[in-house]
Amino acid sequence: MNPHFNSGDWLVIVVYLAGIVALGVWFGKDQRNTRDYFLGSRNIPWWSVGVSIVAAETSALTIIGVPAIAFGGNIGFIQMIIGYVIARVILAIVMVPHYMSGEIYSPYQLLEQHLGAGPRRLAGAFFLFLETMAAGVRVYVACIPIRLLLGEQVCSFGGLLDPILGAIVLFVGLSLLYTYIGGVKAVIWTDAVQFALFLAGGLFALYYIPTRIEGGLDAVIAQASASGKLAWFNPHFTFSAPFNIWMGVLGGTVLVLSTHGAEQLIVQRVLVCRNVTDGRRALFLSAVLIFPLFFIFLLVGVMLWVFYQSHPFLMPVPESRPGIKSDDFIFPIFMMTEVPHVLKGFLIVAILSAAMSSISSAITALASVSTMDFVKQMLRDRSEAFFLRFSKYSTVFWALALVGVAWLTREVQFVLNAAFSLRGLTSGALLGGLILALFFRGVGARATMIGMVASLLTMNVLYWPPNIPAIKPWWLATFGGEVFWPWFTLIGTVVTLATAAVFRPRRAPERR
Fold first, then answer.
1. Distances from the Cα of 466 to the Cαs of 120, 243, 418, 462, in angstroms?
2. Residue 184 covered by a domain
3. Other C-beta atoms within 10 Å of 171: how many?
4. Does 382 map to a domain?
5. What pLDDT sits at residue 411?
6. pLDDT for 364 beyond 50
7. Element (H or E) spanning 466, and its range?
């Protein structure tokens, strides 16, 4: 057991875990076909979809990592959020009508409608492979601080498993339970509850931390301002760190155009909306929510920095390891050592909520693409009952895949550095392919696929050399730096479009 917890803290955690699974099972009952399972029968309120969008993109590492960014630097990450908001407005206006144009289960279906089956399969394969890798790595990295929070005895199931493996199995298993039974409807409704929990946790931290600092909020603002912790605007253009306004407005916008417009993880939520109006409302609501959510947790990081300027750490701060920095442990350590019991349990629940939301989202997205973009296209003569069974079995398969990837990740040190960048390797290819399918259909399937593959290869060349220890010194000496992840999607999209233009046939039949 964690010595920093008492029975009240554990009661809060157990009630949450039991309640969220029961809620997911309840909302997701009576699944009759794949339309119910993957589209929620298209009768889910837009406001719950909007909240679910934000919950799906907020992982446990976001809840502890965003405060760590401000703790170790300043609140300059806000510049990225500006782009995140702009992208949602563009998607609501431009893309939602395409999503609602028929019985669409994934954005890759649009590629087949306009270009043919080849681009659809290629885009689906890109998503399945990279999302499995990225989600598995995120699960592993998130379970490092979760093990610290819950204690090794609990996470190891009394010594039966390695503590990290036990944490992985526990949270993937609980997320799978309600996802298997209820499909996307269960995921969206539990997302709504989980969003409320981690937002409330952030607001509580925002209120509580200044009460532990002499001089209160005024002292926090004065010391943070004097130390540059509240600086947020950087006008200097650069392809490398730190964050700047160009990176946010250009890189951040294109990044979210892909993650929320061309990747199933988020798009699946918009697809459950009743009509174009509801889809737009959901995206607009997510735009309204995302800015204050990140701002709250950035301010939490600033307040923690002020607090620890005059207070000693009451437990050792774990050393950095690939994929997670020492600063990422600051918020969990504050929870365990400085927050009163029961309230401590409530804050832990906020982190667990974010972890389970991101896991269930990945499972259902992988299951829907594998079922609807591949299996159902190959076995068209099978019954709807068969595909519903297969859909549920596929959630089990992908949950096991996430556990496997998460556990194997511990042996591949430099891969951990890719925890939040892996998706960027394909995001430009997926967005570029979708742009070509919807707005430049004359390029044809062959040129589109060549462009997507060229994008993937280019991004691998840009990403891996500076992140492999044996090659990094040569790369930095030769090129002077590395490309920061917010630019990945923009570069990948440009490569996709440019390559497709080069290989475009002189006359290509346009599919309608």
1. 32, 19, 11, 8
2. yes
3. 25
4. yes
5. 64
6. yes
7. none
d(CA 170, CA 352): 11
| DSSP per-residue string spanning 314-371 | SSPPPPPBTTB-GGGGHHHHHHHHHSPTTHHHHHHHHHHHHHHHHHHHHHHHHHHIII
Q: What are phi and psi of 321, to 5 degrees?
A: -145, 165
Cα–Cα distance measured from residue 301 to residue 344, given in angstroms and rounded to the nearest whole number: 17
SS3 of 3-68: CCCCHHHHHHHHHHHHHHHHHHHHHCCCCCCHHHHHHHHHCCCHHHHHHHHHHHCCCHHHHHHHHH
Torsion angle in degrees (nearest 10) through CA of 193, 199, 204, 206: 180
Residue 197: which CATH number? 1.20.1730.10
Q: Which tokens go with 322?
A: 């690939």
Q: Which residues of 225-247 are buried (b: 16+ CB within 10 A; e: fewer)?
A: eeeebbebebeeeebeeebbbbb
* 3-state percent breakdown (helix, strand, coil) of the chain, nearest 5: 75, 0, 25
Residue-wise pLDDT tens digits, 2-51: 677 889 989 999 999 999 999 888 887 778 899 999 999 999 999 999 99
Contact assessment for residue 455 and residue 493, using Cβ atoms and an 8 Å cutoff? yes
42 Ramachandran zone, left/alpha/beta (phi>0; psi -120 to 50) = left
Residue whose structure tokens are 């593959």: 453
CA distance 13 to 202: 17
Q: Which of 176, 191, 155, 171 is nearest to 406 (CA)?
A: 171
* pLDDT, tens digit (0-9, with 9 covering 90-100), for 470-486: 888 888 888 777 888 89
pLDDT in tens, 417-452: 455 577 789 999 999 999 999 999 889 999 999 999
How far is Cα 288 from Cα 286, in angstroms, rounded to an integer?
A: 5
CA distance 41 to 386: 18
Lookup: tokens for 144:
């490092």
Residue 324 pairs in a beta bridge with: 321
- Structural domain span for residue 341: 7-13+43-311+330-411
Query: Considering only CA atoms, which of 195, 143, 149 is closest in space to residue 172?
Result: 143
Of 357, 427, 488, 424, which Cα lies nearest the Cα of 61?
Answer: 357
Residue 288, classed as helix, strand or coil, is: helix
Tokens of 253: 């916008």
Q: How many domains does the chain have?
A: 1
Could you say which DSSP state residue 511 is in? P
> The tokens of 117 are what?
């089956």
Domain contains 447? no
* DSSP-derived 3-state class of residue 412: coil
Let me know: does 78 contact 232? Beta carbons within 8 Å: yes
The answer to whether position 37 is within a domain reads no
CA dist 166 and 434 (Å) reads 39
What is the C-alpha separation between 130 and 259, in angstroms, rounded?
13
